[in-house]
Amino acid sequence: MRNKRIFVAVIAALYASSAYHFVRYYVFFTEFYLKLNAYLTGRERIPFQERILPVFIMRPLLAWQPLTHLLSSRRGALSPPARGIFFLISLVTFAVVIYYTHRLYYAVSTRKTFAYLVYPFLLYTVMWSYSIHIDQNFSYPYDFLSLAFFTAGLYYIYKRQFLPLVFIMLIGTLNRETTLFLIGIYILDAATIPTVASTASFRERFDRAQIDWFRVAILCIIWASIKLTLSHYFAHNDNSENHIRLAENLVIFNPKNWPGALNICGYLLPVAFILRRRIEPIRFANYFYILAPWIAIMAISGLLIETRIYGELSTYVAIAAVLELEHYADHLRDIRTTPGSTDEPTSSHPTEAPALHAVAGD
After folding, report:
1. Can you tell me whether residue 12 is helix, strand or coil?
2. DSSP classification of residue 32
3. How far is C-alpha 255 from the chain's CA centre?
4. Which of 230-239, 254-263, 290-299, 350-359 is predicted least confidently?
5. What is the mean pLDDT of residues 66-83?
6. Which residues have a Cβ under 8 Å from the Cβ of 316 and sit 6 or more positions away?
7. Cβ 208 vs Cβ 191: under 8 Å
């Protein structure tokens, strides 16, 4: 028991160190795209200024002299004070992301075979989504806040806790408008027929009669009210970057840009999507269908080569990949335990061998 506690403590320390190192790298080596003074005073370009929540966090912290004095004497990611506060916000919110990612995994997984892989998969997806870029290597104060809100929203959708989801919509939409996709996932979750086979067609997976459209309307009204209010309040800001980008995406989307554009969650999203029929439960697998409207909307409003526009999907893709790996491990176990199989266990603990093989690959 004592050795187990030591092992868990060592792993926790390693994970905490890697989280700190990643956030520090993200803050230090990406380009902070906003004009901070303009953003904090409500004069930044649209649509960036409409993502207002970080202003309410950063402005009081920048006005707190003991903190700014401390940060002024630091180096690296903690200096100057504006970057140091950006680093602290990112670090705290990334910790929230890790927390809700594990809660979501334990809520979804029936096997929990590879719980120890959830964080490494998450770290992999966020590293590529937010910091490993050649083009459009930008960072924004609302990025990790958005990831935290979206991950918490997924958790409450799956647990079917509506009131916390309403809170996520109220606060999260002030941060970034991608909370809109949580409404789509809420509809997919509510309409899913849980008893159908994983091989069922799209139409066989859903029953629209199961959807509580009144609750959907509440979520839509919250999102639209906040979005319209912010658009009206900042109507006189510079609107030069708030335009349809479809033509730009068609121009830049040539073969030399394909590797960058496919870097969605570290190239893991396409693989996880192809293997989505191996994800159990089917409710969680069906969340993948949000990709169609997500890509369509981002092709119009964002640059597809800037893969952080898919960043909120990092936690979902990480968990989906772990669930697919658990399915594969069970498949190996079934093969080894089938009567008449010529395979003999190579370990004195036969239940451990499939998991080891699953980690190593086929």
Report:
1. helix
2. E
3. 27
4. 350-359
5. 88
6. 151, 154, 287
7. yes
Is residue 253 predicted with pLDDT exceeding 60? Answer: yes
Residue 215 identity (one-letter amino acid): R
The residue assigned the tokens 């609302």 is 142
Query: Using CA atoms, how far apart are residues 255 and 310, in angstroms rounded to an integer?
Result: 20
Strand (E) or helix (H) holding 104 = helix 81-108
Q: Residues with Cβ < 8 Å from 330, sequence gap 6 or more?
A: 111, 113, 354
What's the pLDDT band for 198 if we cut at 50, 70, 90? Answer: confident
> pTM (2 decimals)?
0.89
- Length of the chain counted residue by residue: 362
Please give the pLDDT value at position 340: 59
Confidence band for 338, pLDDT divided at 50, 70 and 90: low
Amino acid of residue 273: F
Using CA atoms, how far apart are residues 150 and 169, in angstroms rounded to an integer?
9
Q: How far is CA 81 from CA 35, 63, 70, 78, 130, in A?
A: 15, 10, 8, 7, 22
* 206 phi, psi to nearest 5 deg: -130, 150
CB within 8 Å of 172: residues ≥ 6 apart: 146, 149, 150, 153, 179, 182
Give the tens place of pLDDT for each residue, 94-125. 999 999 999 999 999 988 999 999 999 999 99
**50: which DSSP letter?**
G
67 and 115 in contact (C-beta within 8 Å)?
Answer: no
- What CA–CA distances, in Å, run from 167 to 67, 82, 185? 30, 28, 16
Distance CA 91, CA 17 (A): 11
| Integer Cα distance of 289 and 304 in angstroms | 18
Q: Burial-class residue 113 by CB neighbours within 10 Å (0-12, 13-18, 19+).
A: buried
Tokens 């991950």 map to which residue? 151
Identify the three-state secondary structure at position 136: coil
Can you spell out the DSSP letters for 276-312?
GGG-SSHHHHGGGGGHHHHHHHHHHHS-TT-GGGGGG
